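Running log. JK asked me to keep both predictions on one page so they can be read side by side. First protein, sequence followed by its tokens:
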Amino acid sequence: MAKSFKSLLGDDIKNTRTLLHEAIPITGTIASGTYSDNNIKTFSHGMYESVYDYPYLSSSANHIFDVSYGVSHRATSSINTQDSKKANIYNQMAQTLFGYDISGSIRLFDSDGNLDTSNGQMNQCFFINFSRLLVKDEIKKNSFRMGLFLSGTVEGRTTDGRLELATLGDYDAGNEFRTSPAGDYGLIFSQSGDSTDNTKSIGLIFYQAGIVALSTSSWDSIPHFNSGSSPDYGYTVAQSLVTASITGSCDALRHRIKNISFNNTTEINSTIYFCRVPHNKYNYSANPTYLSSSQIIVKNIASDTPVSYITTIGLYNPNNELLATAKLSEPLRKDPSNEITLRVRLDY
């Protein structure tokens, strides 16, 4: 128990913030169901699919992301399959990520980020919701990349049967991003050269929420969106998504993912205490073993200056109640001829 205390002044305390980043790679084989689809979990409600890195019944399986598809009220139709559920998915995502306008209506997703109701509206969207296990506190800006085949397996097209590969990314988001009720978000482009023209954006990425919203307009000019060995060459994306269920549309998207990568962010807040030991203090110890027969046992000659050894630092509140202790790796010699500054760091 401490017998004397030293108050920490404003100059003795410093608060810092450190951002740690970790590279996250997701291969297309995992997204497309590499374990005979046993790592793809579907639900009876049919509103989204969950992707795991191992078969989801395994105790070692980790949830990677969810994928869903939604439609705004501008694009809903009585001929749509699961029309109300698609609208519910879209509205849930929009009100959470974009909030409401001045009239109290849910804001629609806007690909150029200008919230202009007359331009850039994303009425049909795929949503990829990454798990907190991967995202941590947020996705690092300008680190998201997604290799995406623009068609399914089409015989005779390329060496692997795909029509074309696009690499989507939040290019230049480190210099230009926007804010929403869910935090910061950036624009997604199909290639880096498009990032100078916001009208060419094909989606949005919400960094703190860990959600990607992709407009289906990415495939507007590409046929063969439906998966299968013999696709209808005249079947457009719009037709596919109208007649397909949500899980069917999600399956079509998952099988077109070549890879996904991004850097996550872990924010570490720290308080650093500079514990300064002046030359004229803490040269004696209150430890009962410091004295023997009224003699300081660490001195060889009675006339020598007092000496002590610092082994532990205690942080106390104003009521002198111990809150935290820090142990030194080895004792530090202290006598009237030296001064010591000890740096204690608390991370949270």
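And the second, directly underneath as requested:
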Amino acid sequence: MDENELAAVAATYRDRPVGIAYRADLIVASKLLIEVKAADAIHDAHVAQTLSYLRLTGLRLGLLINFSAPLIKHGIRRVVNNL
């Protein structure tokens, strides 16, 4: 398996495969989804996008990391899916 296949997330609709839905930025130990941004701020749309990715992968926990924040610790937002 090459590195591109590791981040590929397949989707199904009504029990039918529809192909690769998106490529995750990073999935850690099959438990944590990391979504990386470089935006002026983390907006509600970024959180909603990360939550959609969590639902698609079946994962429960994600980190939304904005590398444009002055301090990286201020650019991290925890996103949960039904915890």
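Observation for JK regarding the second prediction: The chain has a mean pLDDT of 89.
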